[in-house]
Specification:
The protein is α+β, with helices and mostly antiparallel strands. The protein has a domain of about 350 residues: Cytochrome P450 (Cytochrome p450), CATH 1.10.630. The strands form four sheets. A five-stranded mixed beta sheet has the order 1-2-8-5-3. Strand 10 and strand 11 form a beta hairpin. The longest helix has about 35 residues. The radius of gyration is 25 Å and the shape is globular. Keywords: Heme, Iron, Membrane, Metal-binding, Monooxygenase, Oxidoreductase, Transmembrane, Transmembrane helix. Belongs to the cytochrome P450 family. Its cofactor is heme.
Length: about 500
């Protein structure tokens, strides 16, 4: 081959590569120009930013707090292993996120990236999330009618998991005991007894919560075409789905047989539970395809959300009860009075203002992470202050810093158990400061907007019933009167101390 021909081939190859790569490079440069206009906490160089990204795993709280204090009411960005994340604060910017639609700032897209939902929680649940409507409507509305079942399972679960005696103190490993109790209680409502008490089904739901988080971290390291293989061979998610199917398939198929037998979805003796509510919502031909997997995957998703957040909140509350014996009696007296007047009912839970305040306050102090209201910019998004976030960027609010802001909360580092119930006592404030309400200074459930957690009403009522039972049934404390054990941070995620023991003793009735 002549030198001339070789040169032509090289020139054509260079032109081809330039044609292919130049537009991508120009788009990348335009995107980076917008990101570079947002101040950085940490290193911002092409290579040095990876040092800061690595540091984020163990020092996320410090990094987020630095940005919150250095850029109040503004946006800043932090480098993560898979790209830049923009963090915003201040009422105006939080309102911008709350008001944005999914074509501008998408919650589902952000969760899909963070949790790799197509491979961990199931593609059908992401593509057609009708389980959210089920949680928002029938699951929430039936709480009053099914509260007796919740109460029955709470009594049974505590008797099995914490069989404390009046005569001696019992040491209880808190977090994992709580997860067992929450799994049983939630699933009594979701799928009923005896399945909610099945040891493998209980273990499965707890493990799936952990495996989904771990699986997401694994899958984030692989390109799209390798993710199905990585899911199959490097995560425990497929095994969890198979185990859940073994337990739930007979129940689902029995319901389908009843529908066919009676020619209606409203057949005699139909259970009032999550399986039925999901089948009712699966009312189109497309939704009835591969119906067993569709229902199983959604039950796992609902369990994933219910067990994680409720277990974290319940454990945090128990740690603070054990560390602050002075608040036991006021809470105990309120629970006793409400139960005597209304019984163990949804209405009774609604009257427990001090307990609601205590739960909200413990989550303000600790919470479930340093970030909230996570969204993905679907196109370049301009905040009200002129900050432009380029398409494809993940945006969040600095929730932990918000909850510890001295401009919003007096003595923010201290537990004030009745902070919010005192606020509710003021005229016209009765609803505003309860745990489930929209509150721009409180981000546990999302600070408002249409993506505020739809399961919060169920979760808060369940938590009140759980804590109320503890208050009336047990005395609790830490051995040697130690304080609240330090939580475990992993990046921007936080969980209660995993090894702490709490002392329980049954109260004399």
């Amino acid at each position: 081959m002549s030198l001339f021909v070789s040169s032509q081939i090289l020139a054509l190859g260079a032109i081809f590569l330039a044609t292919l790569l130049l537009p991508k490079f120009l788009r990348w440069r335009a995107r980076m120009a917008k990101l570079n206009a947002i101040p950085t906490v940490g290193n911002s160089g092409i290579f040095s930013s990876y040092i800061s990204a690595y540091r984020f795993k163990d020092h996320a709280l410090e990094i987020l707090q630095e940005g919150y204090e250095k850029y109040p009411g503004r946006a800043f960005k932090v480098p993560l292993p898979d790209g830049w994340q923009v963090i915003v604060s201040g009422k105006a910017m939080v309102d911008d996120i709350r008001k944005a639609n999914d074509q501008e700032l998408s919650f589902p897209k952000a969760i899909n990236k963070v949790m790799q939902t197509d491979y961990t929680l199931g593609r059908p649940a992401r593509a057609d999330p009708y389980h959210i409507d089920v949680v928002r409507t029938p699951l929430t509305r039936n709480l009053g009618a099914r509260f007796e079942d919740l109460r029955d399972e709470i009594k049974a679960a505590f008797a099995d998991e914490i069989p404390a005696k009046e005569s001696e103190w019992m040491k209880v490993p808190m977090l994992y005991t709580v997860m067992n109790i929450v799994s049983r209680t939630s699933n009594r409502y979701f799928v009923g007894s005896p399945l909610c008490r099945d040891p493998d089904y209980m273990k499965l739901n707890i493990e799936f919560t952990i495996d989904a988080f771990n699986g997401a971290k694994t899958l984030q390291r692989y390109p799209g075409f390798l993710k199905p293989l990585a899911r199959q061979f490097l995560t425990n998610v497929p095994a969890c789905v198979a185990r859940a199917t073994k337990h739930l398939k007979p129940m689902i198929e029995e319901r389908l047989r009843k529908e066919e037998e009676y020619g209606t979805t409203d057949w005699p003796g139909k259970p009032n539970d999550l399986i039925s509510w999901l089948l009712d919502e699966a009312n189109t031909e497309d939704r009835r395809k591969d119906i067993v997997y569709n229902i199983v995957s959604r039950i796992l998703v609902v369990n994933f959300a219910a067990i994680h957040t409720t277990s974290v909140t319940f454990t945090n509350s128990l740690y603070h009860l054990a560390a602050h014996p002075d608040i036991l009696e006021p809470l105990r007296e309120e629970v006793k009075t409400c139960v005597e007047e209304h019984g163990w009912t949804k209405a009774g839970m609604g009257q427990m203002r001090k307990l609601d305040s205590f739960m909200k306050e413990t989550q303000r102090l600790v919470g479930v992470g340093g970030l909230a209201m996570t969204r993905m910019a679907m196109r370049d998004f301009t905040f009200s202050d002129g900050t432009v976030v380029p398409a494809g960027t993940i945006v969040s609010t600095a929730s932990y810093s918000l909850h510890h802001d001295a401009n919003l909360y007096q003595e923010p580092e201290s537990l004030n158990a009745f902070r919010f119930s005192d606020m509710r006592a003021k005229e016209g404030e009765g609803y505003k400061h309860q745990m489930v309400a929209q509150d721009p200074s409180y981000a546990l459930f999302g600070s408002g907007g249409r993506h505020m957690c739809p399961g919060r009403f169920f979760a808060v009522n369940e938590l009140k019933a759980l804590l109320g039972h503890v208050l009336l049934t047990y005395d609790i404390k830490f051995e040697n009167n130690t304080g609240v054990p330090p939580p475990h941070w992993d990046g921007a995620s936080v969980s209660p101390n995993r090894t702490a023991l709490v002392m329980f003793k049954k109260r004399a009735v």
